[in-house]
Amino acid sequence: MRLALDLFTILCVSAGGVFFLAATIGMLRFPDTLTRLHALTKADNLGLGLVVLGLLPRMEGVAEALKLVGIWLLALLAAATVAQLVARAALRETAGQPGGPPR
Amino acid sequence: MTALWLLDLCLVAVILAVALSAVAARDLFAATVFFVAYGLLIALAWVRLDAVDVALAEAAIGAGLTGVLLLGVTARVHMEARTPGPGRGMRLAIGAGCAAVSVALAAAVLSLPVPAPSLVPAVEAAIPATGLGNPVTAVLLAFRGYDTLLETLVLLLALLGVWSLAPDRLWGGRPGLRHRARPEGTLAWLGRLLPPIGLLVGVYVFWIGSDQPGGAFQAGTILAAVWLLAIMAGLSDAPPVRSLALRLVLVAGPVVFLGIGTAGLFVAGAFLGYPPAAAKTLIVTVEAALTLSIAATLALLVAGAPERAP
């Protein structure tokens, strides 16, 4: 049981790490703001989510585990909102330019 | 242990790299972003040193609040005409001055005796008299009460300094511009969703501060952020700085602290002393008043000088 839980933690946290890595590469390599935002949200949603999931069995009690999940939910909320606001600002900036949305 | 040692090494390397990038960045905005990242990494370093109180304060005030203030400065500096930067000679002089300070600090740190002189045993011996479980709060509010009292007064003075930038005709008016957000928009939605959670966390961080990491400064920053969010989402407006209620909240912390401290002269035999039987109650009372005042002061520091006539 102990071994299975350890394996679960290692798998989930590693998978989370992969998403963080992919998101970082996307941030650096993608051509414009909207695609970069798309990459960034993967780190917050899946990356942090998988890390939290992997750490859950290592928590001492239900309250501790709920705190971790709460942190993830707050990060999700902040990431989603900021992504919306940045995307709106980016759209406004490129409006009317070639390749941008209509003004 | 080797893995943790490697982690620390990586952390130190990244902190140095980010600090250098912040100093070397040509663009003000980039420098500010690096500065915020630097603050968050320093907070991680404090966690690694088991100084969670300092880590919380650094993340909230060092990275968060200072970052917002610097972003405001960046926006303002960009709006105004560019003045030419310092010349080569001046830059060399500034660099030499900074290097001298760094060398002196490094020399001071390296010449500390080993083991370093410590007041930890004295604090541990005296802590039961305060009734607190968090030694940091005991030091800040009881053993070194002077420092904390003066810090809160400095914050208040800083706010007065910001307010005094207002032209005469706007004196007493509301700081900053009225923020408007679309009523069904994302920001307005977040402004309605997050404040209850933020209030809960702020009050929790204040309350837990007497026994675990937390306290007035960290809680005050969280509450300030909640208030600023409501203002930015257009759900509430910054109060006019002539408002009596606002001014009472601003001075509540220092006044309560000074009042209880002065009463200590007669009851406990020393300024800022507490009678042991009531120490914890008095300290929590001071912390509560400080939390309110710090929250209001920090939020108004970000809001800036009055820009709308009363």
Helical stretch count of chain B? 11
The major β-sheet of chain B equals:
2 strands, antiparallel
- SS-based structural class of chain A? mainly alpha
Give the low-confidence spans of chain A.
none
- Report how far the terminal alpha carbons of chain A are from each other: 60 Å
Looking at the chains present, what oligomeric state does this protein adopt?
Answer: heterodimer
Structure description:
The complex is a heterodimer of chains A (103) and B (310). Chain A is mainly alpha-helical and 103 residues long. Chain A has one domain. In chain A, 82% of the residues lie in helices and 0% in strands. Chain A is built from three helices and no strands. In chain A, helix 1 packs antiparallel against helix 2. The longest helix of chain A is centred in the last third of the chain and has 33 residues. Chain A starts with a helix and ends in a 9-residue tail after the last helix. The mean pLDDT of chain A is 87. Chain B folds into three domains: 73 residues; 31 residues; 192 residues, no CATH class. In chain B, strands 1-2 form a two-stranded antiparallel ribbon. Chain B is 71% helix and 2% strand. Chain B has 310 residues and is mostly helical. The mean pLDDT of chain B is 89.
List the helices and strands and how they pair.
The complex is a heterodimer of chains A (103) and B (310).
Chain A (H helix, E strand, L loop, with lengths): L1 H28 L3 H23 L6 H33 L9
Chain B lengths: L1 H23 L3 H21 L3 H28 L8 H23 L9 H7 L8 H9 L1 H19 L10 E2 L10 H23 L7 H17 L11 H24 L11 H25 L2 E3 L2
Antiparallel strand pairs in B: 1-2
Helix pairs in contact in B: 1-2, 2-3, 3-9, 6-7, 7-10, 7-11, 8-9, 9-11, 10-11
